[in-house]
Amino acid sequence: MHDISLPIHSTMLTWPGDPPVILRPTSRISQGGAANVSELRLGSHTGTHVDPPFHFLDGAATIDQVPLDLLVGEAVLVEVSGAQVGVTELEELGIPQGAQRLLLKTSNSRLWEGGATAFPVDYVVLTTSGAEWIVEHGIRLVGIDFLSIERDGPPSYPVHRTLLEAGMVIVEGLDLSAVEPGRYTLACLPLRILGGDGAPARAVLFGP
User: Fold this and answer.
1) What's the pTM value of the predicted model, to 2 decimals?
2) Torsion-angle region of residue 112: left (phi > 0), alpha (psi -120 to 50) or beta?
3) Which of 46, 47, 58, 128 can pair with 158 through a Cys bridge, CB separation 3.0 to 4.6 Å?
4) How far apart are the C-alpha atoms of 162 and 151, rounded to whole Å?
């Protein structure tokens, strides 16, 4: 069993402009409290999280409407060595025909090995043409080892929209640093937030 979730803590890396993580004790046994209790504040796209179609498409499926059989099942983890994941890279990976869940391990995973807290200048992303290739090949879930699957900047967010308009879900913020490429069983269960635009998740791989 491989835990591929990022730990949540108050100094963790978050997307620029997103709410910071606040973890504050409200009751401690050591201070006379009956139990240890904390207050937790965080954005819906903190750490390892799932983007449903509603993230960029009003009226589309929200996080509580994502089918569980999409979030749990066989997944293919591939490793990409380049600076981006485009059509050429995807075609060279030998992704099995019929694969429904694809996890992309890139050099981004090295960030988590050192517990990154500063936003990186550069990171590996999926290109728009790569997103179109993924949709055309019937993949229903795609995950990547950074807080976003595409570069910050384009206001239209074409990669997200290409994937989400096809009814896919995106898993971002995976820590794949200690996992080798191969076939696994993925269990990625986001918080069941009613009408949510996204939610943090605990993601685990079983196998191979």
Assistant:
1) 0.95
2) alpha
3) 128
4) 14
Fold of 2-206: Glucose Oxidase; domain 1 (3.50.30)
- Residue pair 150/126 in contact (Cβ under 8 Å)? The answer is yes
Phi-psi sector, 76: left (phi>0), alpha (psi -120 to 50), beta: beta
Comparing CA positions, the residue from 122, 86, 128, 129 lying closest to residue 104 is 86
DSSP 122: -
Strands 182-190 and 72-79: what pairing?
antiparallel
Q: What is the pLDDT of residues 80-89, one digit of tens each?
A: 998 899 999 9
- In sequence order, which residues have a C-beta less than 8 Å from that of residue 108 and are 6 or more positions away? 123, 124, 144, 145, 146
Has 9 been annotated as catalytic?
no
Q: Is 202 helix (H, G, I), strand (E, B) or coil?
A: strand
- Do you know the residue count of the chain? 208
Helix 158-165 × helix 128-136 angle, to 10°: 10
Question: What pLDDT, in 10s, does the model give residues 93-112?
Answer: 989 999 999 999 999 999 99
Burial (CB count within 10 angstroms: exposed 0-12, middle 13-18, buried 19+), residue 124: buried
Catalytic-role residue among 2, 9, 49, 55: 55
Kindly list the domain boundaries of the chain, sorted by start residue.
2-206
Cβ neighbour number for residue 78 with a 10 Å cutoff:
19
Cα(57)–Cα(163) distance, rounded to whole angstroms? 11
Q: What residues contact residue 71 under an 8 Å CB cut-off, 6+ apart?
A: 50, 141, 169, 186, 187, 188, 189, 190
